[in-house]
Design a protein that fits this description.
Blueprint lengths: L2 H4 L29 H21 L5 H6 L3 E3 L4 E2 L2 E2 L5 H12 L6 E8 L3 E9 L5 H13 L8 E3 L7 E7 L9 E7 L3 E8 L7 H15 E3 L1
Length: about 220
Amino acid sequence: MSPLETSPPVHGTPPDGAASPFAAVPESVQVHQDSPRRLRRWLLVGSAAVVLALAGAGYATADRFAALGAYRFVTPDRFNGASADLDSPLVKRVRSDAASGAADPKAFAASYGTPSTGYVMVMGYRRHDFVPSWSLDRAIQRAAATQHVPEMHSADPGPRGGAMKCGLQPAEEFGSPGSAMCLWADGSMQAMFSEFGTARSLDLEQVEKDARAFRLLAEQPA
């Protein structure tokens, strides 16, 4: 099984019924259309309640607000000595699915390498994520419910911030080449960085370094 088949999917919204940290205003609150003053009062009270709830949970900080949409994804021309393959099957598929509506229109992908050197592949989508660590854990949990997911370890996300988790899939599993992946989420996007079929032996520390290096190149100020 390839790394893409074992990677947690990314979605634009949490699954139905998921406990979202944004669900701070009760559904029982009703606002009548014939009362604009009451509407304004409820909007102000509701907004304040959301901010206070997030602040109490340690979410609402100036840094978190400033980080929303701070970066855009720009495919690096080269990475680890290899040129970007703009016509790879992965890039074509994501581009086509995004255009047709089969995937999030904000999806992106990048591919580097050859069968002899191994591959680096990245796929994800742009998203303003207020609580990246929560979203990352949810993505992993959803994937693990239906497919094999390597044991994921928390990793230093590097200068771009957010949250990142990485894991290794040994070569002996599924009879496939060894692979490694890092998932990251921040205020601008959620994505997966994967390496497989490389000539060198994969280790978690090196893959984490590679993922941080790629993020520095690909995540450019918006």
